[in-house]
């Protein structure tokens, strides 16, 4: 790899991501620590209600992570051994791992080449007599085509479980993702649009599913732990199924209550940076940003993903190294899951059958996009990208 002779674009490393944590979050965490109640309790309830109201959903349950949420969502939907679940391969491992965890079989549908959202025609072709569910991913903060997916699932009697890990604040039409969902699962991992350290949220329009999810979330216990220790509570409980330990702590809620209140301003700042990137990359040959979904939506701008085209004259991995040398952090979201060792070994027949996933898997890079970045940080990212593809002298 050629090393550019000039000095680094930046003196200081710009991390790929950084959460925006203010005094409000810090003070509330301290208050929680001093309060005598740090695990699931009143603050968690307050956080769930704030998220429920923000999304516009009927029911909202905070969980320890989106992975945990997706896992118990599959269980609550009754998915298990012998069942097939259709999902994209361009996603985080958790989306597919949970299918394996419940003993079902993942079936991959290719994604659209330019949005990386699940291709609805590919979903329809992947349906078999064993298919029980579809898990679309609202990739990067853009919504999958829910009207089509709902119609397909209704027609074939399939459950629709939305992996909304990237999508808090995403809108499909004028409705928030998760507002009308049978089940949607959000992530509050630190790189997400809002964070609780680690954490997730399940929204559902079904009271019955919400009840089942509550059981799976906490040991299958018919009464939440904190109610048992309440003034009015009794220490007795029934175990009605073998559930998990996927509850959410008040320490996390102390952060989340303030994050959800700031979420719209976070998305606004992310959108400003995205507009700056869009304007610049329109003029740099060899770097192709993803495209907007062809239906009314609000992109929550969780990730800003570009593809390093073959004509850029630099491989994706060298591009990442060159950005690193210029003190710009990057990410890859994601290497196609069917090419990961476990899945490649277990299901070798997928390789070569998902052309858009494989093409993108080799070329995608995620650039820094978060509210703490200044305009000048964003300009440094653009300058480093331009330098990496050697395009100062050959702009499109
Ligand atoms: C698409 C997708 N699904 C699920 C998850 C899992 O989220 P969590 O880290 O909260 O378990 C992630 C995390 O990055 C993700 O990107």
* Topology, number of strands: 13
How much β-strand is present in the residues? Answer: 5-15%
Q: Total domains, how many?
A: 2
Identify the quaternary structure here: single chain
Tally of helical runs: 13
Run of helices and strands:
HHEHEHEHEHEEEEEHHHEEEHHHEH
Structural class: alpha/beta
Low-pLDDT parts are none
In what order do the strands lie side by side in the largest sheet? Answer: 1-9-8-5-4-2-3
CATH-level-2 architecture of the largest domain: 3-Layer(aba) Sandwich
CATH homologous superfamily heading of the largest domain: Type I PLP-dependent aspartate aminotransferase-like (Major domain)
Main β-sheet, in a few words? 7 strands, mixed
CATH level 1 name of the largest domain: Alpha Beta
Principal-axes geometry comes out as: globular
User: Cα-atom Rg, whole angstroms?
Assistant: 22 Å
Bound molecules: pyridoxal-5'-phosphate
**Spatial separation of the terminal alpha carbons:** 24 Å
Q: What can you see in these coordinates?
A:
The chain is of the alpha/beta class and 396 residues long. It folds into two domains: 238 residues, Aspartate Aminotransferase, domain 2 (3-Layer(aba) Sandwich), CATH 3.40.640; 125 residues, Aspartate Aminotransferase, domain 1 (Alpha-Beta Complex). It has 13 helices and 13 strands. The strands form three sheets. Strands 1-9-8-5-4-2-3 form a seven-stranded mixed β-sheet, sandwiched between helices. The protein has a three-stranded antiparallel β-sheet with strand order 7-6-11, with no helix packed on it. Strands 10-12-13 form a three-stranded antiparallel β-sheet, covered by helices on one side. α4 links the parallel β2 and β3. α3 packs parallel to α4. The protein is globular. It starts with 22 loop residues before the first helix and ends in an 8-residue tail after the last helix. The model has no long low-confidence stretch (mean pLDDT 95). Pyridoxal-5'-phosphate binds next to α3 and α4.
